[in-house]
Fold this sequence. Notes:
Blueprint lengths: L1 H36 L3 H5 L4 H15 L3 H12 L2 E9 L5 E10 L2 E14 L2 E9 L1
Antiparallel strand pairs: 1-2, 2-3, 3-4
Amino acid sequence: xxxxxxxxxxxxxxxxxxxxxxxxxxxxxxxxxxxxxxxxxxxxxxxxxxxxxxxxxxxxxxxxxxxxxxxxxxxxxxxxxxxxxxxxxxxxxxxxxxxxxxxxxxxxxxxxxxxxxxxxxxxxxxxxxxxxx
Length: 133
């Protein structure tokens, strides 16, 4: 009887921790995508591994060097983009997941399939890579 209670409690704790991890992963992904498509690469970089964060900051330098009219056009084009998380799957280890999402454009309502890899560093989930399949 004691073993049944132990296994039931362990199962409940495992289920709760999995749901909590899923929520954290989804929250990081949604925040990252929101910042990324708003061309707020400095904010998006804080949700990335150091390597990917550096790439985004280099992209920010390129965008900042553009003329104001071009920057406004980019902001206008990206403002209509929506994203939708489709699924989360375990990746190469327990500390990494593959998140599938769609990028929904105003003229392409079915969306474009994309994926993102999240890794756990310490207690935080970080974006390690993203883009099309």
